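Show me any protein, fold above all:
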Amino acid sequence: MAAAVLALSGRSSVFTRPLSSFLRANGRFGIVPRASFSTLLRKESSYRFDSSRVVVPHRNKKRGEDASFNSDLYLGVADGVGGWILEGVDSGEYSRLLMHKICNEIREYEKALLRDESGERARCPDPVMAMTRAARHIDLLGSSTCLLCFLDPNTGILNTANVGDSAWMAFRPGTSLGYRSEEQTFAFNAPYQLDRNQRVSSPLRLAQRSKTRLEEGDMVVVASDGLWDNVFDKDVMRILQKEQDDVHAAATELATMAVNNGRNRTYASPFFRHALQQRTFVGLGGKEDDVTVVVGRLTRTSEPSNEVIDIDESEAELRI
């Protein structure tokens, strides 16, 4: 069944309400150097992201378990499940390899478009299929959440696929219009996740999909739970409003706020409040964790582009 297209516009229904109202109702596998290439997607592109990414590992870790990427069309975050450390397994290896293989799936898709001489208009790749193909080829112990947001350059529709408790938000500066995705958990602080057992954890079975029509100037945040457990939605929107012209400043300020709140033992954090709602006591304060924040601002152009842009897989690390 085709997913309905949501819209942040006066033509939509529930999604025209303020975000708070809606919510109440509802490394080792780092960059592999390669030649960049221009694609049919960008040659025809009218919508693109100006995007930036900030990653802050937990202060007690040499290397975090989050992995991510960003480009002018593709945003992604994976959060390796830390519980594997009890088995002597670093889930960061799984999440980094997952993101790298997804990036390669995107690259291969775009290269295939260049070979296509049918003259048909290029279509955005399917994030669920990219996630599925990547996960099938990983035979590591470990597991990870995964969130992908792929922008259709022709329509401005954001195609998303999510497994786990990372989340994304779309916000229109100058308005109260916003949408935040729901997290996928089977119990408190226990997210859905991908691992090498594809009969159980296949994205085809688990992934939550959506299509959202964006407009020029809309802001998108894609982040691991290190942000959402420590920063309330209203504060995310406030920072997006303030830094709407500087995506790197927005990503940096959001990540810094999440880290500082996570270390604050007297802060009634979103994580603390959610625990109370679930009748689980975790103690007052934030939740220290790896924090990954990707921010994109939708731009629009009437001119085709031959600009060469590849996906940035760098760890984008910031120590606070």
Q: What stands out?
A: The longest helix spans residues 91-115. The chain is about 30% helix and 25% strand. Residues 49-300 form a domain with the Phosphatase 2c; domain 1 fold (CATH 3.60.40.10).
